[in-house]
Amino acid sequence: MLAKRVIPCLDVNEGRVVKGVKYVDHVDAGDPVEQAKEYDRQGADELVFLDITASRDKRDIVLDMVRRVAEQVFIPLTVGGGVRSVQDIREILLAGADKTSIMTAGLLNPPLISEGAERFGNQCIVVAVDARRVPQSGRDDSYLGPAPEAEIEWKVWTHGGNEPTEVDAIWWAQEAERLGAGELLVTSMDADGTKAGYDVELLRRISERVKIPVVASGGAGNVQHMYEALTAGKADAVLAASIFHFREYTVRTIKEELAAQGVPVRL
What we know:
Elements: E1 5-13, E2 16-21, E3 24-28, H1 32-42, E4 47-51, H2 63-70, E5 77-80, H3 86-94, E6 99-102, H4 104-108, H5 111-120, E7 125-133, E8 154-158, E9 163-168, H6 169-179, E10 183-188, H7 200-207, E11 214-217, H8 223-230, E12 237-240, H9 242-245, H10 251-260
Parallel strand pairs: 1-4, 1-12, 4-5, 5-6, 6-7, 7-10, 10-11, 11-12
Antiparallel strand pairs: 1-2, 2-3, 7-8, 8-9
């Protein structure tokens, strides 16, 4: 069985790592270069760097900061934010990234996913799926557990979680795989920053429908949440921010506790 991955995430805005709740109310969480060095030291399997306002502000990602982060880590680095063209993907990879995360542009221009995969390889193309549950009358939509297929759906949001769409998230995950994505980064906007647990049902439904790796994002508050995402949610990796940035857990501690529960991880 392949080892499950534990991945810290650096959400970066104006040169600083930030962390919010449900994509708002961001607070400062440190210097991205120093945070990256620390997570590499702790034994993170990978690192994700997201310029969270690049798409919303319609600007390019800050490549200089990507280079500075890449110089400090010796683990795979995924970089996203403001990716709109094959040339953007190329520049990010040349800056030191191993993978590029595509969200808004992939949905608005699906051939970008295919072109990127053909040019640089599927392994370099991560499609980010930011999803929010659609309110259903007479049901508590704060509940993120199992529910009958007909009673729940998720829609994709773009531009850093600022723009709603009518695109079904599960369909889009499957379509992204068909277009050539090598991995999916699935974030529950309802759970993001709450530390109340991942949307396990969303993860399960996507993981059962695709063959490429699924990275769980949004809601990590403790090791049990990660265990549930990797087992019941069938994710291949868990991504977290708050619990690492504010030193509630180290990557090593998370891995040791997951291993104690029988989850295969790299120690």
